[in-house]
Amino acid sequence: MQVIIRQENPEDRPAVAEMIKSAYQDVGYSNHREQFMVERLRKSDAFIPRLSLVAEVDHEIAGHIMLTKILIHNQEQSMVSLALAPLSVAPEFQGKGVGGKLVAEAHRLAKELGYRSVIVLGPAKYYPRFGYELTKKHGIELPIDVREENCMVISLVENGWSELTGRVEYSKEFFE
Questions:
Q1: Phi–psi pair at 175, nearest 5 degrees
Q2: What residues contact residue 92 under an 8 Å CB cut-off, 6+ apart?
Q3: Are 65 and 106 in contact (CB under 8 A)?
Q4: Count of Cβ atoms closer than 10 Å to residue 101 Cβ
Q5: Exposed, middle or buried by CB within 10 Å (0-12, 13-18, 19+), for 104?
Q6: Is the Cα torsion angle 15, 65, 30, 171 positive or negative in sign?
Q7: Residue 26 DSSP class
């Protein structure tokens, strides 16, 4: 199976929305509205077109990932970071490495663009394989009440952890 990872384009959006909807239809923790969050984020100042990627298999949208800007505030500084939300893979392609390829390429591009870290809320058994660690371990607080094992961060640069402390501020489009 050949997977092509590329930047999402406007023509992909209807297929991406349907794929996201199907990816989360049987997920218990989902509010089943992730496709609407993606649409809101695309219209926000947090959106980075280069970090909205699709995975194609046989010219079909098999997956999507989006990284958007967030802030981490502490007493001394505010730093720009990224939020990975959501990562979606069509049910028929789950467990076949599509999600991993999307995450790897999103990380590579984010680092190339000069971003230093990514925060994710996701399955505790999935994201550590990419190097994610608990936010709590690094003094990062999230503004929402979620299980701490699902709150993770990765530094995209060597020795980048010292700057990663404080409270995360998501764009309002995550919550509307």
A1: -115, -5
A2: 62
A3: yes
A4: 19
A5: middle
A6: negative
A7: T
118-127 pLDDT per residue, tens = 999 999 999 9
Q: Look up residue 63 and give its two tokens.
A: 């997956």
Cα–Cα distance, 176 to 173 (Å, whole number): 5
What string of H, E and C letters represents the secondary structure of 145-163?
Answer: CCCHHHEEEEECCCCCHHH
pTM of the model: 0.95
- Cα end-to-end span (Å), the chain: 37
pLDDT of residue 85: 94
* Tens-digit pLDDT profile for residues 50-99: 999 999 999 999 999 999 999 999 888 899 999 999 999 999 999 999 99
Residue 176 has what pLDDT?
A: 77
Angle at 52 between CA 50 and CA 58, to 5 degrees: 110
